[in-house]
Amino acid sequence: MYFVTAQEMYDTDQFAIERIGVEGKLLMENAGRAVADQIELFVSDQKRLAVLIGKGNNGGDGFVIARTLLQRGYDVEVIVCASPSEIKGDAAYHRDVFRNSGFTFTRYEDVENLGHSLKEKDVLIDALLGIGVKGAIRSPYNQLISFVNQFEGEVISVDLPSGLPADEGVKVDQAVQADRTVVIQYPKVSAFLEHTAAYYGRWEVVDIGLPSTVIQSQQSQKRVWAEQDVSNTLPIRDAFSHKGKHGKGLVIGGAVAMPGSIAMTSRAALRAGAGLLTVATVQETITALASTVVEATYTTLPSEGGYISDIGSVDFSYDAIAIGMGMGRHSEAERMIQVALEKTQGALLIDADGLYALKGNLSSLKARQNPTILTPHPGEMATLLDVSIPELLHQPFAYSKAFAEEFQVYVVLKGAFTIITTPQGHQWVTVTGNPGMAKGGSGDVLAGILLAMVMQSQTVEEALCNGTWIHGYTADLLVQHQHSTYDLLASDLIEGLAQTYRALLR
Ligand SMILES: NC(=O)C1=CN([C@@H]2O[C@H](COP(=O)(O)OP(=O)(O)OC[C@H]3O[C@@H](n4cnc5c(N)ncnc54)[C@H](O)[C@@H]3O)[C@@H](O)[C@H]2O)[C@@H](O)CC1
Ligand SMILES: Nc1ncnc2c1ncn2[C@@H]1O[C@H](COP(=O)(O)OP(=O)(O)O)[C@@H](O)[C@H]1O
Ligand SMILES: [K+]
């Protein structure tokens, strides 16, 4: 499923109107009807409804929704929050159709009067502002939004919560806190940002038949990776396959004081399907791991002060290598990352301490001939970019895209919504996962799953999306059936992979 910026949505509308010849009025009719159909699914006709209508096209949708629900026998009061002369174009057309159908509306005067009208209502439909919102919210919408946010019944927003920007990088001034949002055609970017997603409440998308031609022709496509995508791309294992076919992977990391992280990465890689796995680390860590990760083979690396001091002796001809987990942040790490970047012949995944060490080696990324994958959490990504974490999270799509394109890498920016960006600038978001994963070790498990995934027969893009989706989905299954968001451990995710695969392969 694509998701879009406000401009991409306008371009799509424009394409439908100018190139295909569908009139804007008809698009609005389709949009309003589709939203009304959706509302009908979860609001009983015994409820008392009010629709708040603003001056733009979002308000135009509101007229169609109100007319459709009235014709279907709903009790709907329509309150227009703009002067009639302000309403123009398609919205004015639908205001007239509404009136000519024999229905009436009242005009918004002040909050006190509105309070009176809404006292007996169960559901408020918010069609005040859509994707056209700009800057600080002006009167009367600022009072209206505060008012809606005090309403005790259910608030359903049309397209997006009024006042909320559709795009990233825009400050939120004031916005409706919706219980539900019925999104028209494509989710907007703000549905996937940490600071704006919650305004939507539960949301669902209605299709109004707009063509995806414009979105598909764009360089910067943004899509949600969903269960169907996993089912379509996760390779089916061949009955005659052998371990060599499922990838030969190497994990480099760990230190005397940090044996846990590579233990988790390695076990996760094996559970996720890696054919053969080798762990390269310091001797003490091998001793600690040998009894817990019995399926792996080991390479002892020289150490100094409990940390790996050199990786020059490593065989770099693996199908894929993951480096950095539990490696420690010390002066030698930067040199070792440089060696890994130069010598790794297959895909190279850099995580955790490896990302800190990468900071001084960024220019070497471009010279790599094979895929490089970076898996930062927001703190690591902010460090790589030299920006603050809030700045990064204000526009994570733009920052990830700029970085991935400049350095020709795959970036997996982890979070409640994980953003996967390809070197070509294509972006995917996975929405599986829950706060039970907000614990040390979850990222190490992800690194292992992704290592295994990039060695299976799928594209790197598919591998990263599938791995991230599976990681989060496993946590969701575990929290639904065995665990809670409090007690879930990163190691539970490794064992939980069995349930996910069984569900997917069924
Ligand atoms: N053909 C189309 O264009 C379609 C549009 N659709 C609907 O139209 C919406 C977009 O319509 P518009 O572009 O008219 O945008 P809005 O409905 O968001 O209205 C924008 C208007 O609100 C006012 N406004 C903007 N920022 C404000 C602020 N900070 N304070 C106070 N007033 C402010 C401005 O006068 C602006 O013209 C979509 O969200 C969707 O609901 C759908 O009907 C599908 C078809
Ligand atoms: N609230 C959440 N909802 C969904 N996923 C989450 C949440 N918190 C963390 N995660 C996931 O858990 C992982 C944590 O990774 P990271 O921060 O690197 O942890 P670690 O310190 O264990 O390496 C990421 O994959 C992230 O997407
Ligand atoms: K709205």
From TrEMBL:
**Briefly, what is this protein's role?**
Bifunctional enzyme that catalyzes the epimerization of the S- and R-forms of NAD(P)HX and the dehydration of the S-form of NAD(P)HX at the expense of ADP, which is converted to AMP. This allows the repair of both epimers of NAD(P)HX, a damaged form of NAD(P)H that is a result of enzymatic or heat-dependent hydration.
- Which top-rank group of organisms is this from? Bacteria
Please list the residues that bind AMP. K414, G415, A416, F417, T418, G443
According to the UniProt entry, what is the EC number of this protein?
4.2.1.136, 5.1.99.6
Where the record annotates domain YjeF N-terminal, the positions are 9-216
InterPro entries recorded:
Carbohydrate_kinase_pred_CS (IPR017953), CARKD (IPR000631), Nnr (IPR030677), Ribokinase-like (IPR029056), YjeF_N_dom (IPR004443), YjeF_N_dom_sf (IPR036652)
Alphabetical GO biological process terms: metabolite repair; nicotinamide nucleotide metabolic process
YjeF C-terminal domain ranges (all copies): 226-504
| Cross-referenced Pfam families | Carb_kinase, YjeF_N
Q: Which cofactor does it need?
A: Mg(2+); K(+)
What GO annotations for molecular function exist for this entry? ADP-dependent NAD(P)H-hydrate dehydratase activity; ATP binding; metal ion binding; NAD(P)HX epimerase activity
List residues binding (6S)-NADPHX. 57-61, 130-136, 141, 159, 326, 377, 444
How is the quaternary structure described? Homotetramer.
Swiss-Prot/TrEMBL catalytic activity: (6R)-NADPHX = (6S)-NADPHX; (6S)-NADPHX + ADP = AMP + phosphate + NADPH + H(+); (6S)-NADHX + ADP = AMP + phosphate + NADH + H(+); (6R)-NADHX = (6S)-NADHX
Q: Which family does it belong to?
A: Belongs to the NnrE/AIBP family. In the N-terminal section; belongs to the NnrE/AIBP family.
Q: Note how many cofactor molecules are bound and how.
A: Binds 1 potassium ion per subunit.
The residues the record assigns to binding K(+) are N58, D126, S162
Taxonomic lineage from the root: Bacteria, Bacillati, Bacillota, Bacilli, Bacillales
Q: What is this protein called?
A: Bifunctional NAD(P)H-hydrate repair enzyme
Q: Which UniProt keywords apply?
A: ATP-binding, Isomerase, Lyase, Metal-binding, Multifunctional enzyme, NAD, NADP, Nucleotide-binding, Potassium
PROSITE patterns per the record? YJEF_C_2 (PS01050), YJEF_C_3 (PS51383), YJEF_N (PS51385)
